[in-house]
Design a protein that fits this description.
By secondary structure, the protein is α+β, with helices and mostly antiparallel strands. The chain has 2 domains: about 55 residues, no CATH class; about 35 residues, no CATH class. Strands 1, 2, 3 and 4 form a 4-stranded antiparallel beta sheet that branches. The chain has a two-stranded antiparallel sheet with strand order 5-6. The radius of gyration is 26 Å and the shape is rod-shaped.
């Protein structure tokens, strides 16, 4: 989890994060922005926000080999390629490939 600070307001239906104004790494910098950039605003305050920020070791590296469609030339994962009569064909090109093969 990563901690940042953002500006909040109450819209009448509950508290709302003012995401379009940005986020800050420290509470002090968020308060400085509020005081200096929005001096006449009322009903806005700084609040701590927890962001689910995965660490790089949690990410799985892409290890499977990509296959290129013989029809469109785009590389796909093996699940998206069908081999028809020894030819690699992606799911998008498969209907046209079969149509041309029959006709």
């Amino acid at each position: 989890m990563k901690i940042v600070y953002g500006l909040m307001t109450n819209t009448g239906n509950g508290n709302e994060f003012l995401y379009d104004l940005g986020v800050w790494e420290t509470e002090e910098s968020a308060n400085d922005y509020l005081v200096n950039k929005l001096p006449h605003s009322t009903g806005i305050w700084v609040e701590q926000i927890e962001i689910n920020d995965p660490s790089p070791e949690d990410l799985m590296p892409l290890t499977e080999k990509m296959l290129e469609c013989s029809q469109c030339g785009v590389s796909y994962s093996p699940e998206d390629i069908h081999i028809i009569d020894g030819v690699d064909v992606c799911l998008d090109c498969e209907p046209a490939f079969k149509q041309n093969k029959i006709g």
